[in-house]
Specification:
Blueprint: E1 3-6, H1 13-22, E2 31-34, H2 45-54, E3 59-61, H3 65-75, H4 87-90, H5 95-103, E4 108-111, E5 116-119, H6 129-144, H7 148-153, H8 169-181, E6 185-186, E7 192-193, E8 208-209, E9 220-223, E10 238-240, E11 250-255, E12 261-265
Parallel strand pairs: 1-2, 2-3, 5-9, 9-10
Antiparallel strand pairs: 1-11, 4-5, 6-7, 6-8, 11-12
Helix pairs in contact: 6-8
The structure holds BIS(adenosine)-5'-tetraphosphate.
Amino acid sequence: MTDYAIGDIQGCYDRLRDVLARVSFSPSRDRLWVAGDLINRGPSSLETLRYIESLGSSAVVVLGNHDLHLLAVALGGHPPRRKDTLADILEAPDHDRLVAWLRQQNLCVRDRTRNLVMVHAGVPHIWSAGQAEAYAREVEAIIRGDDAGEYFTHMYGNEPHCWDENLRGMDRWRVITNYFTRMRFIAQDGTLELATKEAAASAPNGYKPWFEYSREDDVRVVFGHWAALEGQTGSNQFIGLDTGCVWGGLLTMMNLDTGEKIHCDC
Ligand SMILES: Nc1ncnc2c1ncn2[C@@H]1O[C@H](COP(=O)(O)OP(=O)(O)OP(=O)(O)OP(=O)(O)OC[C@H]2O[C@@H](n3cnc4c(N)ncnc43)[C@H](O)[C@@H]2O)[C@@H](O)[C@H]1O
């Protein structure tokens, strides 16, 4: 069995199948770890979602900001955005099943044997791997539960800007969601800066890319989300897999044991 992790697919179904074909991926033998943003902006979100759902236990998935956006449209009454390419999912006859499946996915997956976690955007240096796991479980329970509609109605927004263990309710869930699915630049005290989306060198004053802070543990973090990084973090501990497929870059998949990367032009 081989475990492969893949960055933001964003509905680029044909490229997904191309890169899987390069390693003769077989769901009966191998597993695909998906670092979030399965859908949106690309041409074939419905096919992508159906395919990954069909993999069953051969897919290990974390939710990205675009996946949460679909859930917010489906469950929280949010209007679709102009650049969304989600209509095929929203109108599909199996829409309810796909949304129900998406709600069961995690924000953070931890593999203790490999000493790694997979998240969409990152794990802030102010949290241990254990804390990250615990905070993810809190929000995952909300997304799966009866209060999901309420959560998705109030999920959007940049505040609170900083983690505080005393936060409760929606403020707590929103800031946890933002660390896991939207973070790029962060200050030493954990304050998030969510407006800047360019490369690591464009850090606003007082902020750095989240992976440039040293962590107290040595857990490896597999993540996507930040296309402008082009997969470059300067560290083997932080493995960026979003190489901008939907922006005409590459789709990148990595063998989780050997570290070998397989790329596909988009
Ligand atoms: N709590 C919450 N609050 C608010 N919204 C929430 C939310 N939770 C979920 N959302 C949702 O999040 C979604 C995205 O929000 P947006 O804010 O609209 O999207 P984005 O930053 O473009 O994010 P993306 O995830 O696509 O990032 P990427 O690095 O690929 O792309 C970023 C930029 O990098 C650029 N880029 C790509 N490759 C590059 C390269 N090689 N060099 C330089 N720039 C590059 C791209 O052109 C692009 O402009 C929306 O649907 C929104 O609803």
